[in-house]
Design brief:
Length: 289
């Protein structure tokens, strides 16, 4: 059985500025993603929740409109719960967009044996991985923490009369919004890393999407099994629960789950995904056959 090793030779030509080199991988990743109209449409639909909450704020703050719509007994806005609810909702468009976009970022390049060509440019394996992660997380950031900031600003201007957001700007508001932004960023990075790791696991894009959904929803069963073994119902690292716990713990202050286990669960997935990507995307491809 012949064995063929495909190696790369370092690029020795003129180099682009460092900023342009770092932007090369995300730029081509965005082009590959947005050639698919379904991904573009889903990305646009990701702002529906923000628009709906903006309308809700406007109706709640308009006394005449509430009387017209017979909504006089509408409760006051709980701004912390509203921000947390936005992140809860936005997890789902992040999942669907990742199913469509992440497999298009790495799997086709593995299928066409493009890594030796890519690595022959002034792009390291670490730079390649960071470029892919920044492209995927950048898209999901627009759906998560960026919309949190927009919603917080809208609450200040659309709902200024009775919103608690003005009661303690320095004491409560800024730390809570900052925690919400970090939670949204953690959601975007976690989903991106797992999606890219699944894309790197196979050369078939359809199978990569199925694998991502299996890992995302199947990790909860594995986590529950580990909790039964160690007799700890709070020690779970299933993706569904862990991502939902980020807003619950760090925005709403839910005491049912320890912040340590939430951060620990996120860290586990980051380490596993990065180690797998670094191993799978090695610069030497060995083919047998």
């Amino acid at each position: 059985m012949p064995v063929h090793e495909i190696r790369y030779r370092a690029y020795e030509g003129p180099l682009l500025p460092q900023v342009l080199r770092l932007a090369a991988v995300p730029t081509y990743s965005f082009r590959a993603v947005f050639t698919k109209y379904v991904a573009t449409v889903l990305f646009g639909l990701g702002v529906v929740a923000l628009i709906g909450m903006t309308c809700y704020l406007y109706v709640t703050n308009n006394f005449l409109l509430r009387q017209t719509l017979n909504l006089s007994n509408m409760p006051l806005v709980d701004w912390k719960n509203l921000i947390a609810r936005l992140l809860y909702i936005q997890i789902w468009p992040c999942i669907f967009i990742t199913v469509l976009t992440a497999p298009r970022m790495i799997a086709p390049e593995l299928a066409h044996h493009a890594l030796p060509i890519i690595y022959s440019r002034p792009i390291t394996r670490t730079g390649y991985i960071l470029g892919k992660v920044s492209a995927s997380a950048g898209m999901l950031s627009f759906l998560t923490w960026f919309q949190v900031i927009i919603l917080a600003i809208l609450m200040m201007f659309i709902y200024p009369n009775t919103a608690e957001i003005f009661d303690s700007i320095l004491g409560d508001t800024i730390p809570t919004v900052f925690a919400a932004v970090l939670s949204g960023l953690a959601i975007a990075i976690t989903i991106s890393l797992i999606g890219l790791a699944c894309s790197a696991a196979t050369k078939n894009r359809a199978f990569a999407g199925i694998l991502f959904l299996t890992v995302y929803f199947g990790s909860g069963a594995l986590s529950a099994f580990a909790g039964e073994i160690f007799h700890n119902d709070r020690m779970y690292f299933g993706l569904v629960d862990t991502l939902y716990d980020l807003p619950a713990v760090f925005i709403l202050g839910d005491s049912d789950r320890s912040p340590f286990w939430v951060v620990f669960g996120i860290a586990i997935w980051w380490v596993i995904s990065l180690v797998f990507l670094h191993w799978r995307l090695r610069p030497v491809e060995v083919h047998r056959g």
